[in-house]
Specification:
33% of the residues lie in helices and 12% in strands. The protein is of the alpha+beta class and 368 residues long. Helix 3 packs parallel to helix 7 and helix 3 packs across helix 8.
Length: 368
């Protein structure tokens, strides 16, 4: 449900409201931490929600404005051996990867390596155009706000997943473009995020994960990577399972992927990385949440860049931070007004997400 209708979003909103209504009032101590009784009530409530939604395992981080955080672990990280989820468990966080990629993209913009509004063609080295609008340039800003008029519903889901397919081949296929002028319509897309990651590689002439390690992960001192083999120890990696059937089916074998030899550096074939392959643990999630609500003091991005991520761009869609209490977590902010579902609803649509009930007090939570 990447581009839900107004009716579908209404259902998600109602579901989110029901979910929050189940949470009891939780008194806190003077230092802001939960009392033992509050922590137990919170754990029992979360367990009920996760069991109802057939979640095998989860790690929930509650971060306070001070930066301190509390972590709650549930269930199983890997079925074989019944490995439990702990604070050290490293999850693939799906489309939260897009938001984290934006930290790196804006860091390159601040260094003058990339331009938010430059023609992507100059960066990639070949024309990037919607064939219906050949006069309209596609920019990094459009990719980060999902307004480039790129779509996944063409041959991205088939040809794009095949080894050897290049980004240029996908971008030259008219089926992967909407009948909308770039910059004038919101449409959520993995291909567009992948193109942004490839642009970062081209501009910096370095592998995407190397860029992210230097500009984001190392300054935050967190264990995070878009490459499974860089996460150590390997035993901390969680697998991914489909719960659509009575018996869980493994869809993501983190252990096997961590042993795979890295592919050679090639921006034309790295477009699957940035959109959804980030792996991190609870401490990494807490630090990323902190960066998201910070004002430049963490040394990764300036206040101006972080404010840009939190500001509505032009009213077309919701991708990173919306306005007031809406947080959706995928790139530079792009407000979709009444069509933005409460972010908590996304937790049940299949994405690992950031969610919040109060951005003004910066009491934020993350679920992996």
């Amino acid at each position: 449900m990447k581009n839900p209708t107004a009716e579908e979003l209404a259902v998600l909103r109602e579901r989110a409201e029901r979910t929050f209504s189940r949470f009891p009032v939780l008194p806190r101590r003077e230092d802001g931490r939960m009392s033992p009784e509050s922590r137990l009530r919170f754990e029992l409530t979360l367990e009920t929600i996760l069991e109802k939604n057939r979640a095998l395992g989860a790690c929930v981080v509650l971060r306070r404005p001070s930066g301190a955080h509390e972590t709650f672990c549930f269930g199983t990280a890997r079925l074989l051996g019944r490995v439990p989820v702990t604070e050290e468990t490293c999850f693939r966080v799906a489309s939260v990867s897009k938001l984290v990629m934006t930290f790196g993209a804006l860091a390159l913009v601040e260094r003058g390596v990339l331009g938010l509004d430059d023609d992507l063609s100059a960066c990639l080295g070949y024309p990037v155009r919607n064939p219906r609008f050949p006069d309209a340039p596609v920019t990094l800003r459009m990719l980060l706000t999902h307004t480039a008029s790129i779509r996944d519903e063409g041959n991205y889901g088939s040809r794009g997943m095949q080894k050897g397919c290049t980004l240029r081949e996908l971008l030259e296929n008219a089926d992967n473009w909407l009948p909308a002028r770039p910059g004038e319509a919101f449409h959520y897309t993995n291909l567009g995020a992948g193109a942004a990651g490839a642009a970062m590689e081209r501009a910096a002439n370095r592998p995407f994960d190397d860029i992210m390690q230097e500009l984001v992960f190392a300054p935050l001192a967190i264990r995070a990577s878009y490459v499974p083999g860089r996460i150590t120890p390997r035993s901390d990696l969680a697998n991914g399972y489909s719960m659509r059937f009575p018996v869980p089916i493994r869809k993501y074998n983190a252990q096997a992927l961590s042993r795979r030899k890295p592919d050679p550096f090639d921006p034309e074939r790295d477009y699957l990385c940035a959109a959804g392959r980030l792996i991190t643990d609870s401490a990494g999630m807490a630090a990323l949440l902190g960066l998201l609500v910070s004002h430049g003091e963490m040394g990764v991005l300036s206040r101006a860049s972080l404010d840009l991520m939190r500001a509505p761009q032009d009213g077309l869609g919701g991708v990173a931070l919306g306005a007031e209490d809406d947080l959706a977590g995928f790139g530079i902010a792009h407000l979709r007004h009444q069509l933005v579902a409460d972010a908590i609803a996304s937790m049940y649509v299949g994405h690992a997400i950031f969610f919040s009930k109060s951005i003004t007090s910066m009491e934020m939570s993350g679920i992996i």
